[in-house]
Amino acid sequence: MTLIAETKAYAHRGSAWGDILRHPATLWLISAVIVAGAWEIAGRWPISPAFPPFSDTMSALAGLIADGTLGKALIITLKPLAIGLIASVVMGVGLGVLMGLNRFAEWLGSPIFVIAQSAPLAALIPILTFAYGIGLTAKILTVCIMAMPVIVLNSLNAVRHTPATLLDMGHSFLATRRQIIFKIILPAASPVIFAGLRLGCAAGFIGVILAELLITPTGIGDIITYNQSVAEYEKMYAAIFAIMALSVLLISLLEMIETALFHPEKRAQS
Amino acid sequence: MSPAAARKIEARHRPMVEVRHLSKIYAGGVEALNAISVDFPEGQLTSLLGPSGCGKTTLLKIIAGLIPATSGEVMVDGRPVTGPGPERAFVFQDFALMPWANVLRNVAFGLELKGVAQSEREAVAEKHIASVGLGGFEHAFPHELSGGMRQRVGLARALAVNAKVLLMDEPFSAVDEQTRRKFQEDLLELIAREHKTFLFVTHSIEEAVYVSDRIVILSKRPSQVSAIVEPEIGRGRDPDQIRRDSAYLDTVETIWQSLKRYLD
Fold first, then answer.
1. What is the pLDDT of residues B24-40, one digit of tens each?
2. Distance (Å, rounded) from C-alpha A231 to C-alpha A235?
3. CA of A23 to nearest chain B CA: how many angstroms apart?
4. Same domain, B177 and B252
């Protein structure tokens, strides 16, 4: 009995600090400070003349924002990214869910996406350029081939792994096929579908930067390539930092949308 | 005359669920049921009891229309079963609650599927939530409830569609012993209040004897009816007295003796 009481008291004492320490925002901040600090130290060491410290990168970033270069570049980069991601999300979830519900569709479609997910798709970019030129189309397609496979396969698996007992429950309470899909399968599958969307969006960012580095330098890719060639590494890293920050932001936004739409139980928790 | 005895006589009138020569062979050749025939009288609680893996749940799911029989037929309220129907409601062993829906929506789900208007179905659901003792938890989510409370939600959901037959698949097996005892007592009250036919699968002899009007004992797989026991226990008394009643203890012992031979 004493042991139990002591454990409880200990847990209680820990909780005041623990609550602050364990808060997601605190963890974010601590981790950001550690990374920025390590970056600063490594830059000042210096480990390479091509690796500027964090502070220099940030002031270069401020400069790029102030003179409008970054804004213009982002608009150019975001165009193929947005079109490609929207197409991948709509078609990817649609195809994945269809394949999860229908064995024939799965037999027909899944091999392509299984191969696409495991193959180094960047190798296809020259072929895309050959077929679609160096314009917007090739860049959109690069985003799609990077983003779609994981979205499709996650949606497929999510639908396929709906708990059997929930399906039995739906049948026993006389749900129609349509009700089973929309009221049971899709809500049950949504966490894994959204996990696929987050991975797909991250892959889409990789795709668009690859396209801008390998096809023609435009937007953020242009800033990176140009500043690398003139050895203005602060600006190059600033552009890379900006696109990474944007990617993280978008993925956090997706998480918020998911919670708001599908998971009232998580909202209640926090 | 005790209410239970009254119930029994009234129920003699007709079987609510009739199972005729029912066999089930699963793909792969596992023979779960072998030409089983058994009746479930209206207004009573009948337990299906048998060694583990004997096909109790298979039989219940065939009656529910969730899995097809290989041969034979099931009649519910005089009509052959071809699939799930509105006169039957199922209570699942693992509760089968939707984790993304609160208690109110889970309980009202059967009515939601029928297209009953929201205000109406929520009023019905609230009534049944209160009747299983979960008043005040309408807006809680399943993960915030204990196992026993979750099964009360499953029970309320089955009651909300107002089916004549309640099919309960080991409803208390995922619930701890103390909660289970309280649940069994509440179930007896519920049976007395609602005039429904209950089919109850369990692997606990004590539980079967405590809650049942009639116990169908199944043999090892492929199952057949091995015996039918009607515990003569005066109900409507203090539940703790029932558990010490000599008729109760004798019945438990008799069933144990008959089931023992199926254990390897």
1. 998 888 888 888 899 99
2. 9
3. 21
4. yes
